[in-house]
Each structure stands twice: as C-alpha cells, then as structure tokens.
Amino acid sequence: MNYRSDECPDGGFYISAASLLLEFRHFIDSHPSLVKIDQANPLWPKLVLYCEQLEQYPKLMRSVTLLHVTSQIDFERALFCSWGSLAVAKFLNIPEPHQRALFFAGLFQDVGKHATEPDLKRFIGQLGPPSALSPHIANGDYTHPLASSTYIEEVLPDVEGLTDLVLYHHAKDDGTGYPHHISESQLGIDNQILIIANEISDRLDRLGGHNQLVASLPSLKIGALLYFKRAHTGWINVIEPHLEAEAELTDSGRVRRVLMSKRDRLEKLISHLLAVSGELLRFDFDLQVHGLRSMIRKLAGLMADTGVLNHQLFANPELVSKQELSDIAMIFKGIPEALERCLAFIEHIITRKFDACTHLLGEARRLLRLNIRELEDRPCSIFR
C-alpha cells in the first residue's frame, strides 16, 4: 500500500487515493460474485472521482488508514458498504449528491471505533457505556455512530446529509436501533440503503464472508416483505442476477415432507407469539416490547400473505409445483433472522421483570430457539 505524509498536520502517514482504489479492486476481485456485480454496474469513474476528492482531506484519509491497519473486518465492511450502497443508489436513480454522500458514509461510518484524535477520544469517553441500547444488534460499542458522525461533521461538513447517514447506519425500522425512536417513516431511501448494507455485512460475517452472498438472498427477500421495501428491492435487483442459481429440486417428495414439518413447528410458534403479544399489550410503552409486538405483527402478516402455513397447500402434492416448493423453502430460509430479533427482544423483556406471564415468555423463547435451529441453513467458510 502506498502512503502519503504531505499536507498532514502532524506529519503522519495516510493512504493515497490510488492505493484506496487498489484496495477496492483487490476486495472485489477476491470474490467472484462481487466481480460479476461490479462488471454489470460501471461505477469506477465515480470511485476514481470520489477517492481523488478525499485526498483533499488528509484527516479522513488517515482515519481510513487506521481502520485498515486496526481491523480488516471493519475495513472490508467499509469497502462493501460504500461500493454496494453506491451501486444500489445508482440503480435506483438516487440524485448524484446523495450517491456521493452514500459512498462517503459507507467508507467512514465506523471511523469512530478507532479514533485517535484527542478531542474525539475525550468526547467518546464522556458518552459512557451504551446502556439500554437495542438488544438485537450484535454486541459492540454503539457510541461509534455518534462518534463517527461528530468527527465527520468537523472534518467534512460540506457534504449534505453525510453526518445523518453515518449517525443512523444502525437504525431499525421499528425504532429500536441506534439512535432510539428513529423508525422507517423517518428514514430516507439513502438511509435505508446504508442500513441494509450493514445488515448484509453482519449477515455475511455470520455466514463466513463475502463469498456467501448468495446465502443472504432469502433474508433480503423476506426483508423486502417486512420493511424498507424499495431499498431492499434495489439491493435484490443489483445482486440477484449475478449469483449462482440454486440447483433444481430433484426429490420433491422429500422436500415437501421437510417443509411440512417446518411449517407445523412455525405455525405453533406464530400462534404462541400472538398470545405473547396480547399479554404484553399493556406494556407497549416500553421500546423493546413495542419492537417485539411490531415484529410479531409483521411475521403473522407475512405468513398470512404468503399462505405458507395453509394446510391445504400440501394437501394435494400434484397442485404444488417444484417452483412453488422452492419459493416456500426460500421463505423458510429467510425467516430465522426475524426470529432472532424476536428472541433478543424476549431475552431483554424477561430481564426487565414486567408483570407478565413468565411461563408464556419462557415457552416463546424455547419455541423461537427450536425454530431458528430447524429453519436456518448456514454454510460456513474460513475464507472471507
């Protein structure tokens, strides 16, 4: 990697625009599915322009350099979120200034995790521990969106919307993310694109890396039915055409029997969750209870709209085609992530010791764990 030290206030080294572009190139070329997406979405003129513009801001380039040498995972997340968000924004014809802001936001969203500026470190220290943050977000320091946005506002204040994009990159549709109470109606399409980029990145980390992009597709499709429909659809349209299609079903009978078993367990879970939602109605003022009840409503609506719990669906095997079986299997593959959110909410609610039926909540927890284990299909790889 090439570094520069000129123009840097304290003489420290930082990555050059040319080297940053090489990092993008190497990251994309290391993953066949990303190569295909890149070839279908000509973004490089924009990448060159944006990276060259960033060289005017040595402090920001130093922050990217620090991200690179401190955490390869966070650096790859930055590359994926900035490049992927730009591709989706271009596909959806988002105005050019918003495309630029999204690219910058994806690249700089996590610089607050590795801050070295004395003033910023003091500011982070004053924030204290991230108490009572959303329990369904992976464990970590969730002061970093505020720290990152504060730093960017100081260093790069002239890019409209950039600080908000960074501040809200862990927001959730139900208002339980960070910051609290920022929900879908308050998040623009560019916010939603970046939030989904981070959700995909989290998913890929669990699956084994960016070579598992195809395995994230079911969750994206379920997400499009539950929240951020336009942004999810944009992501799906950008990546799905360039992923390997799943092999055609060969043993329809066996697949049907497996799906019927999964359907029966899921039906029992949804029925129980609806009872939990009714029990917790009087506590809906609590953010986590509200988030849980919102997710239960969405899941119940999804089951009703898709009809996958309909017992008549499998009553006559001749009426269910292989494509319909594949669609049902895809829905089941995409549901575990939503169930994990419900489970995290319930774990938090149980610790709050509301005056609610603890047995009902305990049984919901058991059924959620059972269904997550039975429904999820996670290929693993040691290669990122």
Describe this structure in words.
This protein is mainly α. The chain folds into two domains: 3-242, Hypothetical protein af1432; 252-375. 63% of the residues lie in helices and 1% in strands. It has a two-stranded antiparallel ribbon. The chain is globular, with a radius of gyration of 22 Å.
Based on the model shown, name its key terms.
384 residues; mainly alpha; Hypothetical protein af1432; 2 domains; two-stranded antiparallel sheet; 17 helices; disordered C terminus
Question: What percent of residues adopt helix (DSSP H or I)?
Answer: 55-70%
In whole angstroms, the N-to-C terminal distance is: 20 Å
SS-based class: mainly alpha
* Largest beta-sheet characterization: 2 strands, antiparallel
Text of the CATH class of the largest domain: Mainly Alpha
- Give the H and E element order: EEHHHHHHHHHHHHHHHHH
Number of strands: 2
Taken from the alpha-carbon principal axes, the silhouette is globular
Low-confidence parts: 5-11, 129-140, 379-384
Strand percentage lies at: under 5%
Lateral strand order in the biggest sheet: 1-2
Tally of structural domains:
2
